[in-house]
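ESCALATION

Customer reports they have been waiting on this structure for their group meeting. Please prioritize. Original submission:
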Amino acid sequence: MAFHLFGNVLTSYGTAANNRGENEGNITTLQKLLWKGEVHSTVSAEAIRWALRYYWQTAGDNYKVNRRWDDDKNDNVWENTNFSDQEYIDDDVLGFMRAEGAKEEASDEPKQKGKKASKGTTTAKRGVLEVTRAVSTTPFVGDITFNAASGQKGRTSLYGTEVHATQYQYGFAMTPERLKDQSRVIAVLDGLTALGGVAGNHSRFLYDFSPESIVLRWTQDFSPRFLYCFAADEGGEISAPELVRRVQNGDINPKELWVAGSIANSSDGEALEELGANVLTGVKTAVDNLKQIITRDLQLPQLELTT
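Update from on-call: job pushed to the front of the queue and completed.
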């Protein structure tokens, strides 16, 4: 049976803001959704995927990406518009799609008998890495800052921005067997544990998107069973009661879990360790340990520990 890698990431605490999204009047809004009956701010999976690709582009580890971000032009640059999941890590891990219309335009003229209408073509590969939308751990209560543009003032110099002091959590899943190069699962782990920021509407502000806490599962089970497992109380204290319940009930084998970060020092972290999970305080150390297990199970070239 194939192995699957699942993860749930909790970011550090920070202030999320948005300076080029949709505006309501002169107020710049955050993306929001209704989560468990309350309004929460959210960061799209596309923004996280963009940041992962940008990490590979700039990490200097000989990762070849097909879609590079040009900081000078503020735009994407393609290396190969025909795609190659063998050559490029982003084509292999994140997938691609190009849809082309029919070469003949639609016409009101009746088709000749026996002649089929022209159809468009699609070149596509489903992404092996699946990422969920990041959701804030605390509800958005409507905080707004008011600002003034520098220099000469005009009609739009005064503006407001929604801000949310919170943490975000998101999940991911992948089956390395579906990759052209299974060793790229290591690059995914390295990238997701090194994201310093995300793209899209948050790219103008520093919000550290690296894991403050993380839960990883290396398993032959088809389902992650612990996405969005972190919970925050009114004081911001983080726990993972649903994860503990799943392990206690036998839905998750604790030996398949690597739990790291500040959650390791919580009562839930202690409970998971007593149940048999791999619980460590350091995120990088936990990821390095799991990478060694993955390397062994997939029979990849031996890795050198970085911590």
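Sent to customer with the following note: The chain has a mean pLDDT of 90.
Escalation resolved.
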